[in-house]
UniProtKB/TrEMBL annotation:
Molecular-function annotations in GO: serine-type peptidase activity
Matching SUPFAM superfamilies: alpha/beta-Hydrolases
Protein name in UniProt: Prolyl oligopeptidase family protein
GO BP term, pick one: proteolysis
Domain of life: Bacteria
Domain Peptidase S9 prolyl oligopeptidase catalytic: residue ranges: 1-65
Pfam families: Peptidase_S9 (PF00326)
């Protein structure tokens, strides 16, 4: 599961997605948590949408075990991603 969270979200507060991320991670399930400062429920900034889509594509490439044609570089201020558990996948 990939969770994409705007840190200013009032509909789904960040602590709810953090709890879900933690629970899935503790169970050893493949999970990614992507956050963006200054975004609410649904990203509106083009650069944040682009980063979130790149993170999603990378996540799917790890889950479904396909190679990406180009390297994905995800960068920018106010944008974080936790994909650490993906490197320890044993079975999906």
């Amino acid at each position: 599961m990939i969770l994409i969270q705007g840190l200013d979200d009032l509909i789904v507060p960040p602590d709810q997605s953090q709890m879900m991320f933690g629970a899935l991670r503790r169970r050893g399930l493949p999970v990614a948590y992507v956050t963006s400062v200054g975004e609410q429920h649904g990203f509106v900034k083009a650069e944040n949408n682009k980063r979130a889509l790149k993170a999603e594509l990378y996540f799917y490439s790890r889950i479904f075990k396909f190679e990406l044609v180009d390297e994905i570089v995800i960068s920018g201020s106010g944008f974080t991603i936790d994909l650490a558990i993906l490197f320890n996948l044993q079975q999906v």
